[in-house]
Amino acid sequence: MGSKLSKTPSEDVLQMLSRFDTVIIVDDSLSMMGIRWREAGKALSSLAAVASKYDSDGIEIQFLNSHTVGKNVNRTATVKEIFSSVEPGGMTPIGRKLDTLLRAYLAKLEKDPTIKPVNYVVITDGAASTTLPEVVIVNAARELDRMYAPLSQVGIQFVQIGQDEGATRFLETLDNRLKSQHDVRDIVDTTVSEEGEKLDIVKILMGGINRRFDDAGSGGVL
After folding, report:
1. Where does the source fall among the domains of life (predicted)?
2. Longest dimension (CA), the chain
């Protein structure tokens, strides 16, 4: 009998994703037009290809402005079809979108504490233009604390497309200061996607739900 192929360390770590529902949110604001939109599409395809392997009922794809939603997605062709059906336009309502999704999820969690944890991955180029994500995230973290939910019940990973320094500072604030400033659990991680460089898929998919990856990245854990 032939021997089984051994799993790589990253594959072992990613098995944790099988316990989560993965929701990828794509920034389709006007500032994402051109090369940033192409980079966002590449990031979405790469992340979806890996995440869908571990989410038994498929991943969910959302957009900040478009009402287009992909549910139970587990095929590369479907990911591309959904992305190509959307054109960038409008503002960057990160806070509003997160508020809508988190309120709905927390209401379900309140009724049924056994539902699957959720891992949100937000692909964006910059700072929010409407409701402040900080307020939304802090309120959600407080609700999770009030419910005594597991620390990994909800994770939010921001993937920055482009090198806007203001956006980087904004996202780093969400990652590094919310816990200390507001005395709430840490549910946020951020990753910068450098043009032309390979995405750190493991850190992106694990950073919001596993603090070791938030603090050290995949290189410091694997």
Report:
1. Eukaryota
2. 60
Q: Can you tell me the distance from the alpha carbon of 72 to that of 205, in angstroms, rounded to the nearest whole number?
A: 17
205 phi and psi angles, rounded to 5 deg: -80, -20
The pairs formed by 32-40 with CB atoms below 8 angstroms and a separation of 24 or more are: 32/88, 32/125, 32/161, 33/88, 35/195, 36/125, 36/161, 36/162, 37/88, 39/161, 39/162, 39/193, 39/195, 40/123, 40/125, 40/161
Give the residue from 86, 71, 92, 93 showing the smallest Cα distance to 22: 71
Three-class DSSP category at 171: helix
CATH number of 25-212: 3.40.50.410
pLDDT digits (tens, 9 = 90+) for 137-195: 999 999 999 999 999 999 999 999 988 888 888 888 888 888 788 899 999 999 988 76
The number of beta carbons lying within 10 Å of the beta carbon of residue 194 is: 14
Give the number of other Cβ atoms within 10 Å of residue 141's Cβ.
23
Domain segments of the chain as ranges: 25-212
